[in-house]
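pls design
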């Protein structure tokens, strides 16, 4: 199981890469493995401010649809354009080309409430 130490995580299986007041968000390797083959990513919140824990989109796999929960409050600046034509990138490269949204954080202090790689590993039973 790939759990990069430099990222932050949530109990809902999202990862967050913080770059100043900008964050990239995607789902973890564990999450994509549980979902199976991802066939569609629907995110229509670009330009919107989304509160922490609110749903910002959905991921559709062959057998299920799963909500995406915003790990930190912020404005959705960009949706990964590659996911329109290649949703399988979430399966192949969840921490790289499979990122989902880029946001501008509205409350940087929320980062303190995220999990580090060790704590996330404990949640998924590693």
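designed seq:
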């Amino acid at each position: 199981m790939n759990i990069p130490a430099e990222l932050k995580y949530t109990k809902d299986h999202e990862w967050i890469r913080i770059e100043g007041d900008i964050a990239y968000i995607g789902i973890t390797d564990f999450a994509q493995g549980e979902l199976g083959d991802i066939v569609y990513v629907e995110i229509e919140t670009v330009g919107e401010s989304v509160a922490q824990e609110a749903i910002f989109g959905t991921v559709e796999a062959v057998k299920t649809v799963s909500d995406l929960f915003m790990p930190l409050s912020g404005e959705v600046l960009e949706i990964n354009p590659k996911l329109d034509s290649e949703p399988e990138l979430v399966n192949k490269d969840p921490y790289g080309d499979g990122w989902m949204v880029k946001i501008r954080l509205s409350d940087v202090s929320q980062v303190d409430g995220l999990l580090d790689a060790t704590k996330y590993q404990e949640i998924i039973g590693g």
